[in-house]
Structure formats: C-alpha cells, structure tokens
Amino acid sequence: MSLSELLVLGQGSDLASERGVSCTGELPPSSDPHLVERAIAAKAALGSRALILGHHYQRDEVIQFADITGDSFKLAQAAADQSSAEFIFFCGVHFMAESADILTSPKQRVILPDLAAGCSMADMATANQVNQCWQELEKLGVASRTVPVTYMNSSAAIKSFTGEHGGTICTSSNAQKTLEWAFAKGEKVLFLPDQHLGRNTAVLSLGLSLDDCVLWNPWKPMGGLTENQILGAKMILWRGHCSVHGRFTRESIQEVRTRIPGVQVITHPECQHEVVVDSDVVGSTERIIQAVSSSPAGSKWAIGTELNLVSRLAQNNPDKEIVFLDKTVCYCSTMNRIDLPHLVWAMESIVAGHVVNEIKVDERVAKYSKLALDQMLAL
Ligand code: SF4
C-alpha cells in the first residue's frame, strides 16, 4: 500500500490523490454574514475573466453563483466550448477540474475552490493498479483484443492510460454508445472504475448477460480471477463504486412503493444492478432532471441520486411529490467540501492577484487523456 492510499481526507499533501490537500491561507468563517455580498463583489470584479461551473450535486449556496450548471459531461463540454474566460472556477470535484484543464487552452486556468474535494470512486483505481492489471491481460494474450472504457469519474492518470491504449472515456449519459464503439473495435472491454455503470450498461443496454461480466479486484493477484474467467469474459469490470449511489437498496425501493402508492422510482446507473432492475426509470443526472421536470403535475417520484439535487428538484417542482429514495441522508461528502467560504476565498485571492488552488495536469498525462476525451466527444 502506498503512502497516498493511507492519507486521510483533507490532511497531508498528495496532489496525485483525489483526496487532495488542505487549502492554504485565511478562509472567511462560514458565519460571516457578508459572504453573499463578498461573492457578488468578487465575481463582479473578475467580470468576464471568470466562469463558474457548478455540478448538480453542489450546495445551493454555491450553485446560486454558477454561470453554467450540469453533470460532469455537460460541464466538460462547457469547459471545452468556451475559450474566453481566463479563470474557470470548477465547483465540482478534483477529477472534473482535471478534465477541464485538459480540455481548455493553456492560457486558461482552472481553480478548484477546495483541493480536498475529491471522489472516492476515482480513488478506487490508481495508475499502478491499472497498469498491473493491463500487464496481466498482456501475459494472458488478451490485452490486444481488449478496449479500455473509462468513466469520467477517474483521475487524469487513468484517462491517460485509456488514451494510450486506444480506449475512450464515457459518462453515464453516453455509456451505451461508448460500449458499442468499443465492442466494434475489440472483443473485450476493461471498464474502469465503476463496476455498476459498466454492468448496468452491458446487461441492460447491450443485452450481455451477468455471466459475461467478471469483477477485477485490484487488491488480489490476477484480480482474484482465474485464467478461464478472464478468457471467457466480455466485460472486465473494475471493483470500484460510488459511495453515494451504492447506498440505495432494493429494500428502500420496496419501502417507498408501499409508503407512496403509484410512485415512480428513478435511479442513477451508478446504483447496484438489483436496484436499477427494480427501478421504473434509470438515467444520468441530466436525464433524471429532464424526466422529473417534464412529468405532469401530480406525478410522484422517489429519486435515487445525490441529496442536494433531489432537494433542488423538489423545490423547483412544487406541483409534484418528490422524495429521496433512501431514508438516511446521502450527500456526496467530498463534493460538499466546496462551500461559499471556499468560493469567496478563491475568487477574492485572484482579485488580489494571487492564483490559488490551480489544477494543472502533467503534459504527458494531459496529451493521452485528451486523446481519450476527444474520442468521447467525437462519438
Ligand atoms: S457522487 Fe460518487 S462518483 Fe460523484 S463525486 Fe461523489 S463519490 Fe464521486
């Protein structure tokens, strides 16, 4: 186990880890009653030099200042499409800011207001582990027939591995399209790092069977698999998952159906397979927003995704009954590290001429990551 794997969230110093580091400098206290005015003033002072991107799972106090809101795919496109803003404040998590840095011009600078805003799923696949897996596939003679497909929710190092080995990035919006592309190119897919998105898409969208999928455990020799299991598999799924979406269970679906007759259950494909199978609708964050917003007044929805988004959907659709699928609170704790004090601090620092929390991806890593990201954007 390497040192970075032992770091506690927000402590220590390892920029290579999604767990990040603590921020330097004086942050305004969250009790400061002038935070909103300070944010308005700093944003006005930066003017067109700044663009604030806000992921749907962000807190309301941050989202109110976002110029563009979206899921990771929409925000990656937004970062790629715009070339004027000098500073992009990425109110999301570390891997999203890395992708924005890769997709924007060298003149543009990407700022992550809190460096400790990482992603537990992205941390479940390290470059060493993935390289080791690939070497095992090479020894078995199947690497040349295997196409890596990597979920957006991964470090730049894993995206770079994907680009270097002829693969593509995918998101929950385009996972089916990317898997179809990969199977037209090779016989097997190595799907990183979210096992659930890989399995759900392969089985429910491509018609593969559960037996076509095997699970690669990076902590075990040969991924914990036999040679025959690897040779016979079509999908080699990495053993990673989202700590938020992984919480929803079949039992929570049964419970809400009993409690709210006529309720429709809508879940994200990062949920476990059995949860997705028992749902009425499955879709990316953008699809969930679209399905709920366009449904007729009086519709009843139980939503299985991050709680900030579900609360916002409930506020914005008062004519519908919208409940959270799980009874226990389920925020993305790392995404929620970005709060108004961090955004104010980052913007005010730049107004004062100090660039803080810049996310800069190594040139070689950026080159191959961009190959894989461009492949996705071209599909
Ligand atoms: S919701 Fe899950 S996948 Fe998304 S940033 Fe949080 S931990 Fe990562």
From TrEMBL:
<keyword id="KW-0963">Cytoplasm</keyword>
<keyword id="KW-0004">4Fe-4S</keyword>
<protein>
    <recommendedName>
        <fullName>Quinolinate synthase</fullName>
        <ecNumber>2.5.1.72</ecNumber>
    </recommendedName>
</protein>
<feature type="binding site">
    <location>
        <position position="55"/>
    </location>
    <ligand>
        <name>iminosuccinate</name>
    </ligand>
</feature>
<feature type="binding site">
    <location>
        <position position="285"/>
    </location>
    <ligand>
        <name>iminosuccinate</name>
    </ligand>
</feature>
<feature type="binding site">
    <location>
        <begin position="268"/>
        <end position="270"/>
    </location>
    <ligand>
        <name>iminosuccinate</name>
    </ligand>
</feature>
<feature type="binding site">
    <location>
        <position position="119"/>
    </location>
    <ligand>
        <name>[4Fe-4S] cluster</name>
    </ligand>
</feature>
<dbReference type="GO" id="GO:0008987">
    <property type="term" value="F:quinolinate synthetase A activity"/>
</dbReference>
<comment type="function">
    <text>Catalyzes the condensation of iminoaspartate with dihydroxyacetone phosphate to form quinolinate.</text>
</comment>
<keyword id="KW-0808">Transferase</keyword>
<dbReference type="GO" id="GO:0034628">
    <property type="term" value="P:'de novo' NAD+ biosynthetic process from L-aspartate"/>
</dbReference>
<dbReference type="Pfam" id="PF02445">
    <property type="entry name" value="NadA"/>
</dbReference>
<feature type="binding site">
    <location>
        <position position="172"/>
    </location>
    <ligand>
        <name>iminosuccinate</name>
    </ligand>
</feature>
<comment type="similarity">
    <text>Belongs to the quinolinate synthase family. Type 3 subfamily.</text>
</comment>
<keyword id="KW-0662">Pyridine nucleotide biosynthesis</keyword>
<comment type="pathway">
    <text>Cofactor biosynthesis; NAD(+) biosynthesis; quinolinate from iminoaspartate: step 1/1.</text>
</comment>
<dbReference type="GO" id="GO:0046872">
    <property type="term" value="F:metal ion binding"/>
</dbReference>
<dbReference type="GO" id="GO:0005829">
    <property type="term" value="C:cytosol"/>
</dbReference>
<dbReference type="InterPro" id="IPR003473">
    <property type="entry name" value="NadA"/>
</dbReference>
<feature type="binding site">
    <location>
        <position position="242"/>
    </location>
    <ligand>
        <name>[4Fe-4S] cluster</name>
    </ligand>
</feature>
<keyword id="KW-0408">Iron</keyword>
<dbReference type="InterPro" id="IPR023515">
    <property type="entry name" value="Quinolinate_synth_A_type3"/>
</dbReference>
<feature type="binding site">
    <location>
        <begin position="151"/>
        <end position="153"/>
    </location>
    <ligand>
        <name>iminosuccinate</name>
    </ligand>
</feature>
<dbReference type="GO" id="GO:0051539">
    <property type="term" value="F:4 iron, 4 sulfur cluster binding"/>
</dbReference>
<feature type="binding site">
    <location>
        <position position="72"/>
    </location>
    <ligand>
        <name>iminosuccinate</name>
    </ligand>
</feature>
<keyword id="KW-0411">Iron-sulfur</keyword>
<dbReference type="InterPro" id="IPR036094">
    <property type="entry name" value="NadA_sf"/>
</dbReference>
<keyword id="KW-0479">Metal-binding</keyword>
<feature type="binding site">
    <location>
        <position position="332"/>
    </location>
    <ligand>
        <name>[4Fe-4S] cluster</name>
    </ligand>
</feature>
